[in-house]
Amino acid sequence: MTDAITIRRPDDWHVHLRDGAMLEAVAHYTARQFGRAIIMPNLTPPVTTVAAAEAYRQRIMDAVPEGIDFTPLMTCYLTDSIDPAEIARGHAADVFTAAKLYPANATTNSAHGVTDIRKLTGVLETMQEIGMPLLIHGEVTDGDVDIFDREAVFIERTLAPLVRDYPALKVVLEHITTADAVEFVNDASDNVAATITPQHMIINRNALLVGGMRPHNFCLPVAKREQHRLAVRKAGISGSAKFFLGTDSAPHEISAKESACGCAGIFNAPYAIETYAQVFEDEGALDKLEAFASLNGPAFYGLPVNEATITLERAENPVPATLGEGETRVVPFHAGETLRWKLAAA
Ligand SMILES: NC(=O)N[C@@H](CC(=O)O)C(=O)O
Ligand SMILES: [Zn+2]
Ligand SMILES: [Zn+2]
């Protein structure tokens, strides 16, 4: 039995660090594990300008403890009226690594998102030309589409035509939850990849509803049936360069989750790499963890891999019931359980 694993320092290709007190409370969890992270722009107001992204990047750097080498990679929140020139300027200035497409009202803080992808023609042409990745929350929002079908319908109605019309555009389908998504990404060109969260490898929709409603297992896209979890899990541990780590860690203060209308988002940052390690070990695929966590993402983004390494040790790692205080009190994924791996101090 392996008792320690050393891999190149991983990166998180999809994380919500929030702002203000919550940013201060959560930034260190991500920074202690990951060399870089793609920072989601769904603040209020959303990050839609180069100036806003630069200011937010500075606030993140200020929130990361001294002595930790961590680079936030910023994204631009796409709206119906965003100017392609602003996106290109931000990309050229090394401020915007990628741009994020939220279909309007698909998820938390997406009210300013895109109402119709046809409004993005100029933006997508520009991004394709400059080689800037498009990151997608892939769910339709039509009231007549069942919430469990929204990812599959998005792939069929929006993503397939998009990939056909912009064959050279780099596209990441974020936080995939279905066998349909796995199949689409596998069949697409090398310009199409996907991120996978810990929760979508671990829970199916029973975890939300059996024995009572469990708001801390609610995120979007919502967890699906077991057959979909198994397909996503298999893709993640496969070693395929098309799939890489993106936690989608999305902290919401406890009362916003435990509410008559609870927010979507699972806070998994504190134990993210340990959780993934447990999944890979359960699948007998620990040898694929480094590709998923540390190599595939940089290769897709055209960035160097991290030089530093991390070591995970086999050790009981109890997850507290809650973390933080007051307005930053949050319930982490796996609250009250004990994980089998522990990140060794650097
Ligand atoms: N994943 C979630 O359920 N929530 C995210 C938004 C998102 O990534 O869709 C959030 O910002 O809270
Ligand atoms: Zn999302
Ligand atoms: Zn997200």
Secondary-structure topology with pairs:
Layout: E1 4-8, E2 12-15, H1 20-33, E3 36-39, H2 50-63, E4 71-77, H3 84-92, E5 96-101, H4 121-130, E6 134-136, H5 150-165, E7 171-173, H6 179-187, E8 192-196, H7 198-202, H8 206-209, H9 226-237, E9 243-245, H10 254-257, H11 272-282, H12 289-301, E10 309-318, E11 338-343
Helix pairs in contact: 3-4, 6-9
The structure holds N-carbamoyl-L-aspartate (NCD) and zinc ion (2 copies).
How would you describe what is shown here?
With 346 residues, the protein is of the alpha/beta class. The chain has 12 helices and 11 strands. Residues 16, 42, 107-109, 137, 219-220, 248, 250, 264-265 line the site of N-carbamoyl-L-aspartate (NCD). Residues 107, 137, 174-175, 220 line the site of one zinc ion. It is an enzyme of class 3 (hydrolase). One of its GO terms (molecular function) is zinc ion binding. Pfam families: Amidohydro_1. Zn(2+) 2 binds at residues 100, 137, 175.
Name some characteristics of this structure:
about 350 residues, alpha/beta, TIM Barrel, 8-stranded parallel beta sheet, binds N-carbamoyl-L-aspartate, binds zinc ion
Bound molecules: N-carbamoyl-L-aspartate, zinc ion
Number of helices in the DSSP assignment? 12
- Can you identify the CATH class? Alpha Beta
Strand neighbour order, sheet with most strands: 2-3-4-5-6-7-8-9
Ranges where pLDDT stays below 50 over 5 or more residues in a row are: none
Q: Gyration radius, to the nearest Å?
A: 19 Å
Strand content: 15-25%
Sheet/helix structural class = alpha/beta
Mean pLDDT: 98
DSSP summary, beta strand count: 11
- The total domain count is 1
**What composes the largest sheet?**
8 strands, parallel
Helix percentage: 25-40%
Q: What general outline do the C-alpha atoms trace? A: globular
Give the SSE order as H and E letters: EEHEHEHEHEHEHEHHHEHHHEE
Overall CATH architecture: Alpha-Beta Barrel
Give me the CATH superfamily.
Metal-dependent hydrolases
Report the end-to-end length measured between terminal Cα atoms: 23 Å
* CATH level-3 fold name: TIM Barrel
EC number: 3.5.2.3
Function: Catalyzes the reversible cyclization of carbamoyl aspartate to dihydroorotate.
Catalytic activity: (S)-dihydroorotate + H2O = N-carbamoyl-L-aspartate + H(+)
GO cellular component, one term: cytosol
